[in-house]
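Backbone-to-sequence.
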């Protein structure tokens, strides 16, 4: 039988603290962009009023007020670039924190919230309205309009993001092309994301709660494969389905994991960096099958993160590094695994397949590929990744 609970948290916590202190002694940690504000302002001045409507500087600090009113009112259809630097810390001594690409969010008027992609990206203001910003760790939003979960008070955080809010006059692409020649490190990413955005594979979308990202991409020369590359980021890619959960329900996939995001056991919050495939059910719960750095195969544990711990269960199906770089096949009976991992009160339907990649906490790197993701039951099969889908 699978292990219901993961090993004691204390040894992993001590190992984590030791690894982060050693990381700090080696000179690790966030390195601010040299003369960030000065370089942005020089580029903006060089572009002149013909290209730049205005450039405002906003400091976004985590605090009791969820959203910061920037005092800016954006006209409808306005092209705006957010160029950001800085860190927000849960623990500055242990260098546990996140960059803007993970936790800088914006809202325009009464539109839905959105997250900056990378540390520099451009958006259009839609109907226009007041611009609000916030610094937010994962899992705190109650809805798409930016309300915060009242049951999960914000933990004390330190640090801040320094954000240049640049409103472009006329063609944003043309202006960014010039800016990228003047300061490629700062403006080239925003230009590339505007010209050639990294879209999720067809049929997939990112979970709104964690925001858009650039983690998952189609495999260029294989229609049945999907690539995952994460560094100091988090993303959940979802594929909606609607299939009954029966004793004949299976999920199968192949994956080739090249690099695991953590070297420590992943069952505590500060080491919860991992790669996994998951299935979501119609009761709002999800079960994920993950590759662990060191937890034994068949370890089962609840997600250690607030909000998620009431919804997500992890099952270790691979462990260690010996099989990294190899294509491996998995096949799981959904009903059997649900009973063993969660309980006998079975849901009725499978509503989504997820791919999860998390490198927020230790800010490491994870790489893998997936192919031939398949849901199957007595009524037929549904190929989730692949050119030929059948129901």
């Amino acid at each position: 039988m699978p292990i219901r609970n993961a090993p004691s948290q204390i040894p992993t916590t001590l190992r984590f603290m030791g690894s982060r202190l050693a990381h700090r002694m080696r000179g690790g940690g966030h390195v601010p962009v040299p003369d960030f504000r000065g370089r942005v302002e020089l580029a903006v001045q060089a572009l002149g009023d013909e290209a730049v409507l205005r450039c405002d500087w906003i400091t976004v600090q985590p605090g009791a007020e969820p959203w910061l009113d920037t005092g800016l009112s954006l006209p409808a259809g306005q092209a705006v670039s957010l160029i950001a630097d800085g860190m927000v810390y849960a623990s500055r001594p242990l260098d546990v924190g996140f960059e803007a690409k993970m936790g800088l969010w914006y809202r325009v008027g009464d539109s839905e919230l959105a997250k900056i992609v990378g540390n520099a990206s451009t958006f259009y203001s839609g109907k226009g309205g007041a611009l609000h910003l916030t610094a937010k760790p994962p899992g705190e939003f109650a809805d798409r309009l930016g309300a915060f979960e009242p049951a999960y008070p914000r933990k004390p955080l330190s640090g801040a993001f320094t954000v240049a809010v640049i409103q472009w006059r006329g063609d944003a692409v043309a202006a960014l092309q010039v800016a990228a020649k003047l300061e490629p490190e700062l403006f080239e990413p925003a230009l590339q994301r505007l010209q050639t955005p990294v879209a999720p594979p067809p049929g997939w979308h990112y979970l709104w709660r964690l925001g858009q990202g650039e983690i998952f991409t189609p495999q260029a020369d294989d229609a049945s494969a999907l690539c995952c590359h994460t560094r100091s980021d988090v993303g959940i890619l979802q594929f909606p389905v609607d299939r009954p959960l029966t004793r004949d329900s299976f999920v199968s996939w192949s994956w080739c994991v090249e690099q695991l995001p953590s070297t420590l056991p992943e069952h505590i919050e500060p080491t919860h960096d991992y790669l996994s495939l998951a299935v979501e059910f119609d009761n709002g719960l999800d079960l994920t099958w993950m590759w662990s750095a060191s937890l034994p195969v068949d370890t089962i544990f609840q997600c250690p993160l607030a909000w998620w711990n009431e919804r997500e269960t992890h099952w270790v199906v691979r462990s260690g590094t010996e099989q990294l770089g190899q294509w491996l096949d998995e096949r799981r009976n959904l009903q059997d695994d649900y009973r063993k991992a969660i309980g006998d009160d079975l849901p009725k339907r499978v509503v989504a397949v997820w791919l999860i990649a998390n490198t927020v906490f230790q800010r490491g790197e994870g790489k893998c590929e997936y192919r031939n993701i398949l849901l199957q039951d007595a009524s037929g099969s549904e190929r989730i990744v692949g050119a030929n889908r059948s129901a």
